[in-house]
Amino acid sequence: MAGPVKIGDILKSKGMVTDKQLDIAFIQHKVTGDLIGDVLVKLGFVSAKERGQILAEQSGIEFIDLDEYAISDEALKLVSKDVSLKNEFVPLDVGDGKVSIGITEPGNIMAIDTVARLTKKQVKTYIVDRDTYYDTIEKAYYFLENPIYQQMEKIIRNVLSTGAPSGNELVSMTDMIIMDGIRKNATDIHITPTPDVTQVFYRVDGVLQFGHCLPRAIHIGITSRIKILGHIDIAETRLPQDGAFSFDFLNKSYDLRVSTIPTIYGENIVLRILSGKGTLLRMESLGFDAAETARLRGLFQKPYGVILVTGPTGSGKTTTLYSALREVNLLERNVLTVEDPVEYKLSFVKQTQVLDRAGYDFALAGRNFMRQDPDVILLGEIRDEETAKIAIRASITGHLVITTLHTNDAVTSIPRLVDLNVDKYLLSSSLLAIVSQRLLRKVCNYCKTGYSFNDEEKALFREFGIQAESGYKSAGCARCNNTGYMGRTVIAEILLVDDEVKEMIYEGISAPTIKERAITKGMRPFKHHGMLKAAEGITTIEEVLRVAG
Ligand SMILES: [Zn+2]
Question: Which of 18, 46, 305, 433 has fewest C-beta within 10 Å?
Fold first, then answer.
């Protein structure tokens, strides 16, 4: 059995932690008394998931990522929440006379015995990571005991018979709309009035999914309820407004941002859920290939210059930024960030958060960071001329600046910055690379079906010199909410700013020309990366065409 103390040696032999990181973890362990493995996770040297994977590997038990796993209700019904929590396991699935459970420690015989005794079935174990474990248990049992669809159904029937919802019904309805979003891991909730009904949609893995259909009589009530929560003027219905509130659910606090616009059928509401669980991943697990990962690693070690990460909203830029920070030697370089909002807390990094009403924005932060003896500055986003200029100036004065821009591909970031009145010479001399990215949904492992590509499909691959004969189609099943997909992976376009590109930027050469030249020099466009992933069976052709078509 892999003891928690030994985990440090294993991580070191795998190159996942350095001697220095282990030393610091050991010193902290002596102060706090926490297990070394836990300290390493707390310090952000390894993620909880990585610790789980190492435990799994050591014990020869398969690892399951609970974030990408849908627990079956039948399995949950077999054992109570108390029993699960007491014995630190989570029921996963049941079938063929077997029960699958997830355990956080390989030697958890108690869990296996308990499940075998209670269910009279054979027990199959998987390793799950401890951080996700508690959250998963809480959510799974809560929704088993409080089936949202049935409760909503009841309120809808009531409203249809009485004609108007009560105050309590409005509060629960609003709560359930939000809870269902949290259950689905949605990033946004859309509450849309139509002539006959109000429709609720959820954005999950980047795609809208139909959620609920509510009686029209409930719309104004829900809208008002959300506006009150968001500290928005409820009397104003003719103008767009925005606000924010936090929603507490199962011992966790979720930050929600509210936006309203007046449509011809009433106010349309969009809630963005900021889960506060930005993921801490290593560069190699984001979806970049090995060569790109190595190239990016090298970039983030540079002493100065600007690295831009670009992409539309929800393209995983923040996750890439956090994994980039893990590549920076945080014990030797002073890193300051300004984010909107902070999505993941990192040890040794001085993180700050934009606060508009106090006037603390990216530009103000950037200006003041210079007096904090920085080595690396992360500016959450370049939104205006001032921030753009601060980023360039900081890099020219010897700092590494990591920041993001909202652009659709790598090369268009150049004219965007020029539009912000950034000097072409300074831009060309400070820019190291532009990483543009999008997220592709991965085909669901539970319902994917293999098939042979037809000639038309083969031609799509040949366009990029890829020979592919077969791949997967997604069918849709209960586990993936009938979408056919589960989890996402990055596809990226990386523009390395070498001397020739610098020259082109300085000369003011057009973006399409730079792009063409970059491709001949090896920049791989999004679609090419996507088709490679379809050929590998990670995703489907349809998904590649949807995201990068
Ligand atoms: Zn499926």
Answer: 18
